[in-house]
Amino acid sequence: MADRYLHLTGTAPGKFLTRKLGLPQPARLRRWTLETPALTGPVLHLTAGESAVTQELSALLAATGLEVAARADRPAALVLDATAVDTAAGLAAVHAALHPVVRSLAPGGRVVVLGVRPSPDDHHQAAAQQALEGFVRSLGKEIGKGATVQLVRIAPGAVAAAGSTLRFLLSPRSAYISGQVIEVTDAAPDPVADWAAPLAGRTALVTGAARGIGASVASVLARDGARVICLDIPQAQEDLVRTADRLGATALPLDITADDAAERIAAAAPDGLDILVHNAGITRDRRLANMPAERWASVIDVNLDSVLRTTDALLKAGTVNRGGRIVATASIAGIAGNNGQTNYAASKAGIIGLVRSLAPRAAADHGVTVNAVAPGFIETKMTAAVPLFIREAGRRMNSLAQGGLPVDVAETTAWFAQPASAAVNGQVVRVCGQSLLGA
Predict the structure, then answer these.
(1) Which of 344, 377, 415, 416 is catalytic?
(2) Can you give the pLDDT at residue 7?
(3) Alpha-carbon gap, residue 321 to 249, rounded angstroms
(4) Residues with Cβ < 8 Å from 162, sequence gap 6 or more?
(5) Where are the domains of the chain?
(6) How far apart are CA 234 and CA 253, in angstroms?
(7) Which sign does the torsion angle of CA 5, 10, 15, 17 carry?
(8) Distance (Å, rounded) from C-alpha 230 to C-alpha 81?
(9) What is the DSSP string of 241-277?
(10) So what family is this one in (predicted)?
């Protein structure tokens, strides 16, 4: 369903009226297209304090293909290296670096603050680095103009490992992500021969791929060069085949809760999987006092238990190749909760628990990363059926004052899936425009 309010505020009369009434004025987001694959304008490289990684970071930013400058009238992005900030007094350098230039950021611009993990052994450093999180989340809520703000914590000596993350955040692909904290480990990134097709030669399986977010994920993975297997329930076979045919992909009609689901997936990928995307999910909303046991059980089974069972089986069988990527779909409902969704919120919070526990072990034992996307209000057929006022609240209650699109979830999934994202592990990234819920 079209967002008529967003369209209205893009017109001169609508802009005037909403400004007079003090209503939200969402900026139209510029997402990736063939015509606009990158941000337009220079990236300002700023430093707070005396950083030890200035030269390495400069080289990494230059490798993104963006123009990097020390000064510009209308920068497309601001990258602030705050890795050296280790005292409360040192935070003044953050203000000094961004205060003079933040107003000049171009509409739809990006602000990325680089920090390090707060130290358990130095409470002064921990306080200063944790302060960056509050700073970033607040700046994301006030910056406006469709701009976004993120914090990337880099492990010691791991600047090069942040390459894929900076490419993603400093691009139109991250249009609906803001106020996020992403940690980058020191795992060495795998090389990418062609950044126009970073998934070339890799095989991906996407569950729930017949329509909606799953179909969009399959489409973006195929666009980026992956061979895709689209999985969905047999009842959705017509839509599934249509999606697969459009992408030159393989259709696999299969109920992911079936006892033999893992075996059938393995049979469909005889050379193994490089990317496993757990997107299939259902809702059976009702308040707990009115929720029959079967409604509870069906949501937990599809959204969580099937993910646990198939992931365990595919890892044990070696179906997920070394260097592989597992991406699961959580939700901000699993972070903030939602009225009438105790079953759904429990299942999605469970996905977050799965990611945090499995990620380090999967990396150590199988060479596989495990991450999750946590969508907020995304414009789908399901949200189009939500009552008008609830739908409008869902759209406006975020820093970008609009709903996201399925492609926003897909772009985030594709970034997790890249071979160069080996250092991104155990992360849960909200694709919600910095929703005010759970923020």
Answers:
(1) 344
(2) 81
(3) 20
(4) 60, 114, 152, 154, 184, 423
(5) 1-26, 31-184, 203-431
(6) 5
(7) negative
(8) 41
(9) HHHHHHHT-EEEE--TTSTTHHHHHHHH-TT-EEEEE
(10) Belongs to the short-chain dehydrogenases/reductases (SDR) family.
Contacting residues for 387 by C-beta, under 8 A, at least 6 apart? none
- In our burial notation (b when 16+ CB lie closer than 10 A, e otherwise), range 143-176 reads beebbbbbbbbbbeebbbbbbbbbbbbbbbbbbb
438, pLDDT greater than 80 = no
Burial 24-48 (b: 16+ CB within 10 A, else e): bbbbebebbeeeeebbebbbbbbbb
94 vs 55: CA distance, rounded Å = 19
Q: Is 364 helix (H, G, I), strand (E, B) or coil?
A: helix
Mean pLDDT of 118-133: 98
Pick the CATH number of 203-431 from 3.40.50.410, 3.30.450.20, 3.40.50.720, 2.40.50.100: 3.40.50.720
Return d(Cα 422, Cα 185) in angstroms, integer. Answer: 8
- What would the pLDDT profile of 362-385 be if each residue is shown by its tens digit? 999 999 999 999 999 999 887 777
Distance CA 380, CA 383 (A): 5
Residues with Cβ within 8 Å of residue 228, at least 6 apart in sequence: 203, 204, 205, 206, 209, 218, 221, 222, 244, 247, 249, 250
Active-site residue flag, 344: yes
CA 323 to chain centre: 20
Of the listed ranges 64-78, 174-188, 227-241, the least confidently predicted one is 64-78
Q: Which amino acid is at 25?
A: Q
Q: Distance between CA 142 and CA 190 in Å, rounded?
A: 37
Note the CATH architecture for domain 31-184: 3-Layer(aba) Sandwich (3.40)
Rounded CA-CA distance 171/173 in Å is 5
168 pLDDT exceeds 80?
yes
Q: What are 253's strand-pairing partners?
A: 232
- Assess whether the region 31-184 and the region 203-431 belong to the same CATH fold: yes
CA-to-CA separations, 408 to 13, 31, 126, 283, in angstroms, rounded: 29, 8, 32, 21
The total number of residues shown for the chain amounts to 439
Q: What is the mean pLDDT of residues 232-245?
A: 98
